[in-house]
Prior knowledge:
Layout: H1 8-19, H2 23-40, H3 47-61
InterPro entries: DUF3562
Organism: Paraburkholderia ribeironis
Pfam families: DUF3562 (PF12085)
Amino acid sequence: MSQPEPDVDQVVKSIAEETDTPTETVSRMYEDTLAVYRKEARVFDYVPLFAARKVRDQLRKH
């Protein structure tokens, strides 16, 4: 059974607030990361979660 897709706007807004980053920047990073993960994935259930985690981690490091 696959996981429901998260609300992208809510994910982006949450990351933007947590990292004090403009939503446009977060949105672009999230979509780019999501595209890379989807291209390489065999199982897609947790791809949005992994993409959000990677973007969040990248922004926290900067």
